[in-house]
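Input record (Table S2, row 275):
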Amino acid sequence: WSSDVCSSDLENATMARRPIVGGNWKCNPAKVSELDGLVANMNTCDTANCDVYVCPSPLHVGIVYQKFNKGVYCAPQNCNFKGTGAYTGEMCAEQMVDMGMEWCLIGHSERRGEFGLPTPAESSKLIADTKMGYLLKAGMKVILAIGEPLPIREKGIEAVMEVCKENLAPGIPHMKEYGAEKIVIAYEPVWSIGTGVTASPEQAQETHKAIRAYLAEAVSEEFAAAVRIQYGGSANAKNAAALGACPDVDGFLVGGASLKPEIKDIVDLLVAAKA
Ligand code: PGA
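Output record (2-phosphoglycolic acid complex):
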């Protein structure tokens, strides 16, 4: 009978993916005096049926992290992989744990160098293996951002999936070890970030579905059924309903619109689309 129990658990896991929306403030706002307004926007989000997290700038995390309502999680935009010590300019998981933080974003395309870093980009191995493994071991949960640049999208879905798999592959052992509770994937096509060009619902669904199929094969059916995959890239209150209606889109990672009151509407529209 145990296999029957397992298969019904699997179905429940499929049904039970809780929507999740993140606000990525990036290197904003310019002034400390603007923080209270941005915190208030996040705190208007209804978290009854949706997890909400916010990624303040590193300089501002320590100012705001205790100001969010229950259900709105403060998630730094990056993490080192060594802990405390002589790592100038870095942040570590031990500090986050001590401050009561549960989530951390890693692998954002802007961290990978997509805004024009003249230095080598952070590799997928560093992000999905070293950093993700270090964060998970420290007890944190991870939002792992992945996604392709425009020239790859122009080649079609197979080329897109090559990039997504390359981004994800070094993290597969951690996904097997820690499970879908601890990891969220944020699929963010680079060409749609901050450009106002959103992936169409068809493009988002096709890609999310392919990512889930890859994870079913590489990790397990159970992990793939339960893991939440967010879409990111010019998500806003105008496109949240249509994108949120896609069965494999479990939420959004929102940049520009997370600095505005509409972040609340994005959460509401997503929850309504999933209801
Ligand atoms: P955007 O940013 O919503 O401003 O496009 C999304 C992101 O980079 O996380």
